[in-house]
Structures are given as structure tokens and as C-alpha cells.
Amino acid sequence: METEVLRIAVFGPESTGKTQLAAKLAAHFGAPLVAEYAREFWDVHGVITLEDIPGIAREQWRREDEAAARLAQDAETQCHLLNDVSARATRLVICDTEALTTVLWSDLLYGTTPEDIRRGAERRAKNYALYLLLDTDVPFAPDPQRCFPDPDDREKCRRVWHGALERRHLPYAWIRGDWTERERAAIAAVEQSLKEAR
Prior knowledge:
Rossmann fold
């Protein structure tokens, strides 16, 4: 059996519902969720500096790769147990953030990104079957980890995140509207990616 693991990146500026949507997608599709490590790091340390970026990036990447490898291995094991070596499985990993996000935030907050992290992010950006690009058309929810509540700043971030995908010709779907519309659109976009992978 050949097992294909599709990585779905929930992507976009802060306060657009990425974490909530990622959890709903993981539950809907019965897929593993790779949570945002930077948030976990902040909760422990209370601050993120430029020096922290490489460690945060590598730990996020490690967790994501581990989830994808475990999923592929589980699928192979299940196939052998069922004695169905001709089947082809497509599995999902839902990622609440990904490689480019680390670079975009580092550039925004510190004006730079360590070069090895930038190169790693460029390589890894091609790993995702689909980016779900969340628009800023929802109210800003204050949070100690958030930086840009001003509407003009949110629009700038929207352009930055969108431009990052466009410049690299990465596959994405805009996710807009209220929370129900976002969930519906995201599910439909992921289902389309699954169809295309079959």
C-alpha cells in the first residue's frame, strides 16, 4: 500500500481563528493536529526574542514531521493487518501554523530571520497540499500574545500573508466570513484536496 500524507496548513494573521478552525478540522476529519509551539513557548517564558526563533521553528517542524511519520506508519500497519496491500490511503495532518509563519513573524517583529530558518522555511513550504488562508474579516480579539489590533496593521498583515503564498505559487484557499462560514469553506477546501490526491 502507498500512503500519502497531506499536510494542511491553517495560515494567516493573528486573531483570525486559526487555532479554533484547526481543532475543528482535526475533529471533523479524524486527523492529528499539530498545535502552534510558539504559543506554548510564550505561555512558559512570557516573551519571544529573535534568539528564540530557531528553537521555536525547529521544534514546530519536528512535531509536524513526527505527526506525519506516525500517521504514515499507522496506515501501513493497518494495511498489513487487514492484508490489503493494494489499497492506497490518503491521510491528513492539520497544522496550526507552519514554516512560513515563523519567518513572517520574525521579519515583522525583529526585521530579520536567521538565514538557516529562512532557507528551511522555503524548503518546507512546498510540503503542504493546501494552505487555508484566513482573512481578517472578523473582529480582533485581544490577547497578550497579539501585536496588531489596529485595522491598518491588520490589513498590512493580510497583504503580507497573502503575498507570501502568491510569490511562491503555493496552493491556497481564502477562508472568509463568520465562524460557521469559515468552517464550512475550510472543510470543502480540504475535501477538494483529498479528491485531487486520489
